[in-house]
Amino acid sequence: MSHDFQDELTSRLIRYCKIDSQSDADSQSSPSTGIQLDMQHLLMNELKEIGAQEITLTPYGTVLATLPSTAGSDAPTLALLAHVDTAPQFNATGVKPVVHKSYNGGDISFPDAPELTLSPVQSPYLATKQGHDIVTASGTTLLGADDKAGVAIIMTAARHLLANPEIKHGKIRLAFTPDEEIGRGVHPDLPRDLAADFAYTFDGGEVGNIEYESFSADGAKVHVTGVSIHPGTAKDTLVNALHLAAKVLMTLPQTTLTPDTSDNRDGFIMATDLVGNAAEATLTFILRDFERDGLAAKGALLQSVVETVQLTEPRATLTCEITPQYRNMRYWLEKDMTPVTLAQDAARAIGLTPRSAPIRGGTDGSRLTELGLPCPNIFTGMQELHGPLEWISVQDMAIATEMALKLAELAATT
What we know:
The chain is of the alpha+beta class. The chain has helices spanning 6-17, 36-50, 124-127, 145-163, 190-194, 241-251, 292-312, 330-333, 338-349, 364-370, 394-411; strands at residues 53-57, 63-67, 78-83, 98-100, 108-109, 117-118, 134-136, 172-177, 198-204, 210-211, 216-225, 268-276, 280-289, 317-326, 377-379, 391-393. Helix content is 31%, strand content 21%.
């Protein structure tokens, strides 16, 4: 590549990953956790230092900024996005990033968890990164490259563009969102506040991946109210809510329609939480499918199971509430593939072979696209997400930074 961004990317990634910014699905505030604002305030200061304009923290917790056009007012406005929150599925407090310089191709160990090993046998993509600088956490936390790698890439590209105004590009809007990991990253006002013609999230994996198809997603909560009484006098009276919640779980498919039994274009129903006691219990689910009818069928199956369990115990009350989360971005992007084609052209221009496969998940771009702002997803290099084995190659991040710069250049001529 023509630029050397590796030191800057390493420094930014380490700085950002050390900040605890985990989101919380059980919180009703926006953002869901106040600690995410620690990241946002840092980014606002850094954006000011590099000369960005119109730096704003929205009431819903997103940082917005502008890079003025250097190609005239006729060029379309491009938006680049990444999210600052880290996944709630694993410990994200006290992250200690470790840089494994010039990776030797063997197993990687973790200083705070000697029993843990990151192996190229289990992670074939790692086997292709010999000689790269690999960043992991120390073994007791996730790393947070999802999506602080995207934040570092966009900030590095923005600094480079502002420092080199001779590079011709249209107006660029930057957005750093909270709460993506819990499906609340895109506030309904965000498309209006961005005021862009099209956008890209930097929240993908392997180098060359350009994603324009995601899961469609719903969330569900099943609430069980039993009959509570002292266990010493419970005969013929007690109705244990936990038993009924377990019955719901065991009535759902176990050998199909679960994440661990599905791949490619299969959808699933996943129980993510069970909280409660003998009197009351709440089950939380995520429902996923690439197609609307498949998603609806999974919701109907869950409703049917809840109704069946209800029939076994009329003294209890079981309810099932399904909430839409996001939809497959393909439904809108396939009507106008211009942003996807532009990304593929940018990838080829920097020497990559672009690849597109459905995301078995979602991004902020899924919701943005649904709301009218076309937004494919671009690679960062991040791997083994949401757990202690999470890792990323700094060299992959550098290629993603070049991708961002090329997108800015090509978008000006679209």
